[in-house]
Amino acid sequence: MATKRFKPTRRTPSFKPQRRDIKLALLVVPGLLLLGGLLDPKLIGPIGPLGATEVVTARFTACSGGADPACVIDGDTFRLGDRTIRITGIDAPEIGKPLCPAEAELGRRSAARLLELLNQGQFHMIAHRLQREDRNGRYMMVLRRNGDSIGAKLIDEGLAHRYTGFKISWC
Question: What is the pLDDT of residue 1?
Fold first, then answer.
């Protein structure tokens, strides 16, 4: 005589998080956020010795299309020798292709203020630990004078935004 085999009924899976899952998330998520912040210059500014620090004492002018050795292109970009340098962490209004007249005017003011700030004396250019160049081949640098960020000064004066990965409209 054949006996019936016992087949347990399957319980539906529970999507309620288990205690061990919550503990793991409480450990892993903050660690990932901290790591991301340390590696992303847009979230946390550079701290400590990042790379080679370069002291700049050049006299800057406004770029006129010629081969100016040290000139300001716009409110967040300048040329120094054969390098084009963009200030890390800020976005200034465009001068070349503004979207509205207000952006063009603010872009001219921002470039004039950057020119003024660069010519106030020597400053330090510090490369970020991971992001040395942007997608356009410009060198990404933090500019500091006496420990104060030149980019932060432009943001405080309303002549630049903090760059968070995408442009914010100036119009």
Answer: 57
pTM of this prediction? 0.68
CATH annotation of 53-162:
2.40.50.90
DSSP the chain: -PPPPP-PPPPPPP-SPPHHHHHHHHHHHHHHHHHHHHH-TTTS---S--S-EEEE-PPPEE--SS--SEEEEETTEEEETTEEEEETTEEPPPSSS-SSHHHHHHHHHHHHHHHHHHTTS-EEEEE-SS--B-TTSPEEEEEEETTEEHHHHHHHTTS-EEP-SS-----
- Domain range annotation of the chain: 53-162
